[in-house]
Amino acid sequence: MPSYPLATFDSPTRTPALACAWNPQQIGWHIPRIRADEAWTWTQGQWYGPTARRLTILDDGLRLDEGVDSLHFELPVVDYAVYDTGTNWGHHGGYVAPVASARNNGVAVVGVAPLARLALFAVVQNNLAGPAVSDSIHPDRVTEAIIDQASEASVISMSFKAVTTYSGEPYGWGPVGNAIDWAFGVHNTVFVASTGNAARSDLYTWPAQYQNVIGVGGLDQNNLPVAANYAPGNIAIAAPATRIQTLCIGGGGPAIVSVGGSTSLATPMVAAAAHMVRTVQTSWTAEQVKQRILGTATRLLAPSIRVGAGLLNVYNAVHFAQDPPEFSVSIAGTNPIRPFDECTWVASVTAGTGPFSYQWYRDGVFVGSNESYTGSMDGDLNFELEAWVTDNTMSMVTDMVVIWSDAGANPCLE
Fold first, then answer.
1. Is the full-model pTM beyond 0.85?
2. How crowded is residue 302: how many other Cβ atoms within 10 Å of its Cβ?
3. SS3 letters across the chain
4. Is the pLDDT of residue 91 over 80?
5. Looking at per-residue confidence, does 10 or 269 come out higher?
6. How are beta strands 357-362 and 382-390 bridged, if at all?
7. Which of 269, 219, 265, 263 is nearest to 95 (CA)?
8. What is the pLDDT of residue 241?
9. pLDDT at site 274
């Protein structure tokens, strides 16, 4: 087998480590923060029967020491490969899956989309018949799982990453990108992936970096980016990532994990929200669902390079999912700014069909063609900043703001 760079999990802090008692249900702080509970009434009447598309999680499977009956008691699993009660399987997936769709049955915890039909696929490097190495994800396994699930999954969630220090995909990961593009375009499968916890500004994380994947960043309980998560160009939206309630890895709960922050647990929240949008709008394309998730996020003061479009807002995404979102752009950034401070503004796009091209104008003069523009006041009292965005269908939208100078303004966010 070729020596490909392997993706890895970002393992959250595990508390407790093994099976624990089944306790009365608790609703974690993240559920009301992203307004998931408010959205449940909008999806209760939607079709979740045996022909409904599923929410698929690619991870290291699921470990429940109490067996399959216990698994189905708390998780609406309709398909899995591999399920095992061995000691090496499912440590990571056992935390991720309940965050997405643990049943709302009064026991342990409840997921963001408790009615979703869940499929769990192990994509570890080793032979699936042998012992698992739970922190090594092989691109061949990921490709196979995507192809297998494309026609049945409304959303595929991936809480793992491969890392490069350059903008190109890792060696050997081309088939993964091709499979994602194929499933996204042909089967309208939405893809969501974690952006890692490396806290380095020079890293690109995959598959979150792919155009047709929603990359997820992490937030703490104050809606601030978790210190460990910093992946420029990857983060499209953010969700809670600290002190998340889920099941214990052998069954039972609730357990509080990810004390320091893990995008692995933020990712299934976004995936579950996308799945709920699909239950309301079954005819939408994957791009429309993606843009609905991003376009209805709650804006945050943190820079978009750390939080993308903002905090996931499940209620807005589901409640306003009555018509496809319109292609638009808005300029996000600090205003006013202090004289001579260098600041960055981002063209935040809603809907449209990527890839996008950008044109920035300052007082009518062309100044750049990237997603963002960086500049300073340079002694002026104000200047007009325009962003023009063209999508793949040659549709064009624009936004303009007047940036003002104020010596008493806050420093620009970095």
1. no
2. 18
3. CCCCCCEECCCCCCCCCCCCCECECCCCCHHHHCCHHHHHHHHCCCCCCCCCCEEEEEECCECCCCCHHHHHHHCCEEEEECECCCCCCCCCHHHHHHHHHCCCCCECCCCCCCCCCEEEEECECCCCCCCCCCCCECHHHHHHHHHHHCCCEEEEEECCEEEECCCCCCCCCHHHHHHHHHHHHHCCCEEEEECCCCCCCCCEEECCCCCCEEEEEEECCCCCECCCCCCCCCCCEEEECCCEEECCCCCCECEEECCCCCHHHHHHHHHHHHHHHHHHCCCCCHHHHHHHHHHCCECCCCCHHHHCCCECCHHHHHHCCCCCCCCEEEEEECCCECCCCEEEEEEEEECCCCCCEEEEEECCEEEECCCEEEEECCCCCEEEEEEEEECCCCCEEEEEEEEEECCCCCCCCC
4. no
5. 269
6. antiparallel
7. 265
8. 92
9. 96
Between 64 and 343, residue with greater pLDDT: 343
Share of the chain above pLDDT 70, in %: 78
Residue 210's pLDDT is what? 92
pLDDT at 55 over 90: yes
Separation between Cα atoms, residue 72 and residue 178, nearest integer Å: 33
Q: Which residues contact 270 (CB under 8 A, 6 or more apart)?
A: 157, 192, 214, 216, 237, 239, 293, 312
- 175: Cβ–Cβ under 8 A, 6 or more apart, which residues? 139, 140, 143
